[in-house]
Here is the input.
Amino acid sequence: MLWRASMTETLIRQLFNNEVISLTLTDKGLTNQNWLIESKGEFFMVRIPHQNSANVVSRQHEKAAIDLIARQSLDVETVYFNEKSGIKITKFVEDLLTFDEYKGKDKHYRVGRLMRKFHGLQVKSGFDFDPVARLVQYKSQIKNKILVLKDEDKYIDFIKNQKDDFTLCHNDWVAGNIGFASTRDYLIDYEYAGDNHPYFDVTSFLSENQIFDDTARKEFYIAYFSQLPDEATLQQLHCYEMFHHILWYHWAMMMFEFRNEHIYLKIAQDKVDMYTKGYKK
Here is the structure.
């Protein structure tokens, strides 16, 4: 359940010492409320999480990631973060467009370059994302009967055996977390951040944004890898992508039970469809 609007507005005004000129609930974000605030001639975004968000993300992991990348020109500037509640205030970037909003033909290349910069930091947060443990957690919280995807254990076992080359990863490259502005590009919202294999991020972007076009994939690959990946790498990426469909299918079914919002059933069906399509390849 979300905070009631009156409670949220009161809370936001308190955070800004009642010096709020305007506040507007935006349509940004799926699992949080995001408010645009004007205060003292400046604009800010305020993230108000769902009250049961602690069952889904770790604010401790998010805080560690934010601290690590704070001076790397990746995220928007954070001016307030409450590790207990998950409430976060960031500077508003007026001309920022999300991956879906931006229509430039170079968008896939720019994401590859952004991801290469992020992974190029070669830092670790000390907190593993642990995709398989998350899958087990999500499954354990689902009470209704769900699908068992064909040969899903094959891809789960593959992920279990990936132990090397971990670095800080974002793990959630949905369109709303990728931003393009006139001065630079942005990677925002580190709720799922943690140490992981970089290929998890690579395939997060491809799967979450349903990048099926070969030309778009090649533009992204060239920006990220500096060349097209060989067959062995493509096979690894395929396994990671299939695991994404498994993981986020279960996440979506769990979220539907938590919040009874049908958008999560739509996401779950999309994941099943993409898994089926990928399995037939």
Observations:
- The mean pLDDT is 94.
- The chain has nine helices and ten strands.
- The radius of gyration is 19 Å.
